[in-house]
Amino acid sequence: MVSLTAPVAKDGHRPARTSGPAGPAARRRTGRPGIGWALPAVVFFALFAVVPLVLVAVLSFTTWSGLGSPEFAGFDNWVTLFHDPVMIKSLWLSVLLTVLGVVVQTPLSILLGVWAAGPQRNRAVLSAVFFVPLLLSATAVSVLWRALLDPNFGVPSQAAWLFGDGNLLGSRTGAISVLVLVSAWQFTPLHALIYQGATRAIPAVLYQAAEIDGAGRVRQFFHITLPQLRNSIITSVILMVVGGLTTFDTVLILTQGGPGTDTTISAYYMYQKAFKGFEFGAGAAIALLLVLVATAVSLVVVRVSGYDRMAGTKEGM
Q1: What share of the chain is helix, strand, coil (3-state, %, to 5)?
Q2: Distance (Å, rounded) from C-alpha 51 to C-alpha 28?
Q3: C-alpha torsion sign, points 139, 141, 143, 145
Q4: 3-state secondary structure (DSSP) of residue 71
Q5: Cis peptide before 52 (omega within 30 of 0)
Q6: Domain that residue 190 falls in
Q7: The domain spanning residue 168 has which CATH number?
Q8: For 206-236, what is each residue's pLDDT tens digit?
Q9: Transmembrane stretches, by residue range (predicted)?
Q10: How many domains does the chain fold into?
Q11: Which residues contact 102 (CB under 8 A, 6 or more apart)?
Q12: 198 alpha carbon, distance to own chain's centre
């Protein structure tokens, strides 16, 4: 006769029931993907990011006009760089534009993203309209805004009571304001899209419990939505910081570093040194310095925010 119950041990206890095969083979089948899955991405990153960065680092210690072979110059480019007043000013301008971008874009993108996460059909239609700037390149956006802000034929010429002489790009304050406005118009939808997805991932039971406790929309936003968006806010800010420190094409087309050097940020100054002054060694030094500054600022944001100590709630995520 065959027993349908589990065998009983000598101590009277039945052994624990297993749900499947055990051992190394089973662990291999249910474990995380091996390194082979990441190999294509690692090779791509090495060829198009690490190798060029190493070459730029080497070039920063040379003197090269673009013709002939580079000549080793030691630390001459770096010494000149840190004694160049235009370079020091460009770094401060880059930081200023980055900070203004974060201050302006973050609240706008959060509000737009949270609003777009709603279920109404009109929100989906308007969200699609708001995200149109994401389909345009920075060059196209800059050309568009340069035409709109033209002091002779653009919007300022038709509203002198608001814009005065209409030459918004002729003053330091006006030029910086225009750069912040154009960047916000183009990139706020991207960050709003991040917040839209993060908002939709918030469990609805939290809002239901808050309604039972009598919390209104405003209290729900500040006590549920914002805390749940913390990781997304940090990610968005890091993207803004890196993007702000490496902005180039918008300045090239809208202001060309002017008036004077009032909008000559580090990326544009690198372009001037390398491709206008044919000082590719000095341009490479500026490029490497930008990489180091952007990396350092991103690490500080990650460290201060505690993002490096956060862990996913799902295995393998």
Answers
A1: 70, 0, 30
A2: 34
A3: negative
A4: strand
A5: no
A6: 87-271
A7: 1.10.3720.10
A8: 999 999 999 999 999 999 999 999 989 989 9
A9: 37-61, 91-117, 124-148, 168-187, 233-254, 280-302
A10: 1
A11: 237, 240, 241, 244
A12: 16
